[in-house]
Amino acid sequence: MNKLTEFLNLLDKSIDENTFVRLTLSKNRDRNTLLKKVIIKLAIVKKKVKFSVIYREDRKDITKNFDLKEGKMIIENMLRQSFQIANLFTIQNDYVLEIKGLKNHIKIQKPTFTSLPKRSHDKLKEPLTTQINYLAELGILDRVGRVQKDKGDKYKQIQKFIEIIESLIRKNKAIKETNGLKIFDMGSGKGYLTFALYDYLTNNANLKSEVVGVEIREDLIHFCNETAQKVGFENLSFEKGFISNYELSKADILIALHACDTATDDAIFKGIQAEANLIICAPCCHKQIRKQMNTVPPLDSVTNFGILKERQAEIVTDTIRALLLEASGYKTKVFEFISTEHTGKNVMIVAEKNTDAPKNDLYLEKVKKLKDQFGIEFHYLEKLLGLYTS
Ligand SMILES: C[S@@+](CC[C@H](N)C(=O)[O-])C[C@H]1O[C@@H](n2cnc3c(N)ncnc32)[C@H](O)[C@@H]1O
């Protein structure tokens, strides 16, 4: 029996004996493909066991469910045609299949996992009753509150965002005590999160709030303003504006979710200028630092690989953002907003006004050291804050 068949039998056996944890396929023969890895789990969908297959591309994950029979054929084809390594994790052993031309090997190793994962799909949270109306208008739910086809990820993102807001506000005395909050969403797009924020603050937290979405696209502003009127969100409005020159006099909360590249920095800067109590952003693409990075050994070994350079640039860009926020008097946290299974853009930076005196020099020194390490001349936010002079 050849090793591939033997490996597929081990996969069958682990499913039959209920020892299967997960299977991963890696090392694609086609180096130019976007598809870097495949992660296969078991999920129970409509009371049937299925393979839940996550296709991991450079910047996003695509998840598809397959019946076991069809899924096995797909796995076999991917091993024959694309991937050279397969790791089968079971609670008895880990099995590693290495495909090297005609010479295939199976290595047996100690199990990484000693217990089985939960098989069921993440349950989608029930929508709040106030959410059904506007989420139906925005095409996320139907009229009775069921999530529309292909809108599950967006729905999860909205619910997660509200969970984060809820916990931030619960702990923030200044926000809870402000009568008449002024909130801006920079680069509000189709307004999913802007509507969710307004609804949560007004209808659930009972905080009187005026929320403004700022957006460059006129069609989106028109659509969002019409929808806000339709669902009776009186103090929610959308305005045409370019983040960098939008006039912001007072802001209690500023959010910028998935604003492209340096638009995130423009938004952070606006928040700092307006002395917003809370600045929340989820950065999108990170081009500015990537273009400048000029590393020397040993870091050049990392940045010589395109994808690793990109990831490194993301990390450095967001680290410097967090340090500059700290230097500007904000307690800052960086965390995963939502699992990478649902979106590639999943880092969130939350900055809360710090009443203690900021230790600017300490943070600016850290920024300097990082820039030196990566051969970076300046971070765009540094320029905006007037902290960089060439
Ligand atoms: C990726 S979408 C994100 C939308 C929304 N914040 C969300 O997370 O669902 C980014 C939006 O920001 C807008 N945008 C990008 N740069 C902008 C700028 N400089 N000023 C205002 N809007 C901007 C785009 O038109 C787009 O609608």
Sum this structure up briefly:
The chain is 38% helix and 26% strand. It has 13 helices and 14 strands. The chain has a seven-stranded antiparallel sheet, with helices on one face.
Radius of gyration based on Cα positions: 24 Å
* Main CATH class of the largest domain: Alpha Beta
Number of strands: 14
Alpha-beta content class: alpha/beta
What does the largest sheet look like?
Answer: 7 strands, antiparallel
Second CATH tier, the architecture of the largest domain? 3-Layer(aba) Sandwich
The set of bound ligands, ions and cofactors reads: S-adenosylmethionine
- Write down the CATH topology of the largest domain: Rossmann fold
Task: Give the SSE order as H and E letters.
Answer: HEEEEHEEEHHHEHEHEEHEHHHEEHH
Strand order of the main beta sheet, please?
4-3-2-1-5-6-7
- What's the assembly state of these chains? single chain
Mean pLDDT: 90
Count of discrete alpha- or pi-helical segments spanning 4 or more residues: 13
What count of structural domains?
Answer: 2
Overall, the morphology is: globular
Strand content: 25-35%
Question: What's the end-to-end separation, in Å?
Answer: 67 Å
Return residue spans where pLDDT drops below 50 for at least 5 consecutive residues.
Answer: none
CATH superfamily of the largest domain: Vaccinia Virus protein VP39
Tell me roughly what share of residues is in helical segments: 25-40%
